[in-house]
From TrEMBL:
It comes from Aquimarina aggregata. Binds 1 [3Fe-4S] cluster. This is Fumarate reductase iron-sulfur subunit. It comes from the Bacteria. Pfam families: Fer2_3 (PF13085), Fer4_8 (PF13183). One of its GO terms (biological process) is tricarboxylic acid cycle. Belongs to the succinate dehydrogenase/fumarate reductase iron-sulfur protein family. Its EC number is 1.3.5.1. The keyword Iron-sulfur applies. Its cofactor is [3Fe-4S] cluster; [4Fe-4S] cluster; [2Fe-2S] cluster. One of its GO terms (molecular function) is 2 iron, 2 sulfur cluster binding.
Amino acid sequence: MQVTFKIWRQEGPDYKGAIRDYEVDGLTGDMSFLEALDHLNELLVLKNEKVIAYEYDCREGICGQCGVFINGRAHGPHDNMTTCQLHMRSFKDGDTIVVEPWRASSFPVIKDLIVDRSAFDRIIEQGAYITAKTGTAPEANAIPIPKEVSDNAMDAAACIGCGACVATCKNSSAALFTSAKINHLNQLPQGKAEEHKRVQEMTYQMEIEGFGSCTFTGACEVECPEEISILNIAEMNARNAKAKLFG
Ligand code: FES
């Protein structure tokens, strides 16, 4: 299988970037997308050229490190899938594949396809914790939690923080990410102690990081590898209003 990669190359945050073309042969449909990039980098090493910088860790759809734009879509042509889960069989022999970093002013490019997503870490720092007594763990049934509540909390907790929601949103909004992180704790009894503080401080941090406002286009939900629902955003907004009244 042979493809032409058109890949964003940028030496560093203060350098001008540009798309460069690479014709790559010797690929197979069973290769993951990251393995295809590995193969390209091996060819570049043999030619004594600088390798392409891209990020990954687990290669199993868990860590959220690997996000790139592929042919104009976050994580490539399929809904709800990470870049590392994408295989080359999703493309045809002879295809041209355009690969770019996430595009959002709150995610500045560090190098080539790697962006700085530390804005997410700063949002997390504002409230993704609970107050809990130290000592031995309480008996599991001591705090009954309705199944619907625990299911919703677990669904929100599935967010891997990859940033596809921001990258695909026309407003570069981080509302899906932030709402998932707020709601997975705010719904549970263990998160109640900081309920109002959490939603106010995390949404405030989201705003000062420069992310745009949510206009409910729903694009984030389509591209989210973990299928986080935009209902989380509605709930975050409702909880924020409640916190302002009663917080
Ligand atoms: S490398 Fe971990 S989610 Fe893709």
